[in-house]
Design brief:
alpha+beta, Potassium Channel Kv1.1, Chain A, 19% strand, 10 helices, elongated, 293 residues, signal, BTB domain-containing protein, SKP1/BTB/POZ_sf, BTB/POZ_dom, 7 strands
Length: 293
């Protein structure tokens, strides 16, 4: 199967690659073809038009798929090309070709860091700074200027989200031991405003009941204590959306209870419903992995 790194060497030696600092005008090019191609990036396949890529001739893929370089390419299945890079990150690369701008992920989403994406843009010869819009550049500047204390608090928020997600996975791992076809449960976590009981986390309830698993989850949440209430008060809606996006089988409900000046609580109600899907499981297993020939 074709490997993009080999092609890059050929193109570089032949002087086909245009400098990385070319002006934006260099990216405007009439489409050479509407031929559809498949890019197999690290095992994940993307389909696009050749003309989508060649519209940006100063980039690596834009140069690679120019008509003059067709003889250097050796596809499999007539129109499939293997690229030995991160398949999940590549969707941001392809977004650039389709939208003529770089769409940066929101901070903390999909566990994709800006540093990872910048490395990919650099590899594919895409000048990231040139195609980011003003709002994104402003956000980047704000993140860069964040003080060590702000970064510390942001990490606390990220750690809290990770513990919640890990708790969900632990529950699912236990349920899947007896049934892979389908399972459902309700996990309720209660955080108090004051450090009254168990350092802020007051209860962990599972339906169906599982005392051993509930104690494990309680122990993992103890380090957050009163912070849990504060983080839910500030970012509860965003946390719920993030968890549902990463684990679609989970729905999030957040209830605020006030019984007095000091008796305030947040209940997180997590409904977990899993239904087996043969094709989805297969596509995400090693059985679907195709080695490079």
């Amino acid at each position: 199967m074709f490997n993009i790194s080999v092609c890059f060497i050929f193109l570089y030696l032949s002087g086909s690659i245009i400098g990385r600092n070319s002006s934006r005008q260099n990216y405007q090019c009439a489409p050479e073809s509407v031929e559809r191609i498949i890019l197999n990036v690290g095992g994940i396949k993307y389909e696009t038009y050749r003309s989508t890529l060649t519209a940006y001739p100063s980039t690596l893929l834009g140069t690679m798929f120019q008509e003059r370089n067709r003889a250097l390419l050796h596809p499999t299945n007539e129109n499939e090309y293997f690229i030995d890079r991160d398949g999940k990150l590549f969707r941001y690369i392809l977004q650039f070709y389709r939208r003529n701008k770089i769409i940066w992920p929101e901070p903390g989403s999909d566990y994709v860091s800006r540093e990872e994406l910048e490395e990919e843009f650099d590899y594919f010869q895409i000048p990231a700074s040139q195609f980011s819009n003003d709002n994104e550049n402003e956000l980047s500047t704000q993140l860069t200027k964040a003080s060590p204390i702000t970064k510390l608090v942001s990490k606390k928020l990220d750690d809290f989200i990770l513990v919640l997600q890990h708790s969900i996975i632990e529950v699912c791992a236990t349920l899947s031991e007896t049934n892979l076809q389908k399972f459902s449960t309700i996990l309720t976590l209660t955080f108090s405003h004051e450090n009254l009981i168990s350092n802020g986390i007051t209860s962990v309830i599972l339906k169906p009941k599982n005392d051993h698993l509930a104690k494990m989850i309680m122990k993992s949440l103890l380090p957050f204590g009163k912070l849990g209430y504060f983080l839910l008060d500030q970012y509860g809606e965003e946390i719920g959306k993030h968890l549902h996006k990463n684990i679609p089988e989970v729905t999030w409900e957040l209830n605020h209870k006030i019984y007095g000046p000091r008796e305030k609580f947040y209940d997180i109600i997590l409904n977990i419903n899993y239904q087996f899907n043969r094709d989805v499981v297969l596509n995400n297993s090693s059985l679907n992995f195709k080695e490079e020939l």
